[in-house]
Amino acid sequence: MGYPVKLQKVERPTNRSYYLNLPAAVAEVIGAIKGETFEWSVEDKNTLVLSRTIRQTIRAFRKKR
Q1: By the 8 A CB rule, do 32 and 57 touch?
Q2: Dihedral of alpha carbons 39, 44, 45, 49, sign
Q3: H or E element: which one contains 29?
Q4: Distance (Å, whole) CA 51 – CA 45
Q5: 5 contacts 18 by C-beta, under 8 angstroms
Q6: Domain boundaries in the chain?
Q7: Residue among 30, 33, 65 at smallest CA distance from 50
Q8: Contact 31, 46 (CB under 8 A)
Q9: What is the CA angle 61-38-10, rounded to 5?
Q10: Is residue 52 within 8 Å of residue 37, measured between CB atoms?
Q11: CB-based contact 10:16 (threshold 8 Å)
Q12: CA 52 – CA 54 distance, rounded (Å)
């Protein structure tokens, strides 16, 4: 299941910006922290990919004995 978000457009005299909010549930699952930098890439006209600029190491799961 995805989380619906709305694209917000902000027009200022000096620039025009668009904003997307990342739902708190998604931020918690990926372990995002305040101030962390991410990068958007366009895969195709229907798919945006959000990536960390500094990769986190993925911990291996230990088998229970």
Answers
A1: no
A2: negative
A3: helix 24-30
A4: 17
A5: no
A6: 22-56
A7: 30
A8: no
A9: 145
A10: yes
A11: yes
A12: 5
Any idea what DSSP says for residue 4? -
Two tokens, residue 4: 């619906």
Beta bridge partners of 38: 52
Looking at this protein, which amino acid is placed at residue 5? V
DSSP 22: P
Residue 65 has a pLDDT of 66
Tell me the whole-structure pTM to 2 decimals. Answer: 0.65
DSSP 14: S
Q: How far apart are CA 19 and CA 7, in angstroms?
A: 6
List, for residues 15-46, the tens digit of each pLDDT value. 899 999 999 999 999 999 999 999 999 999 99
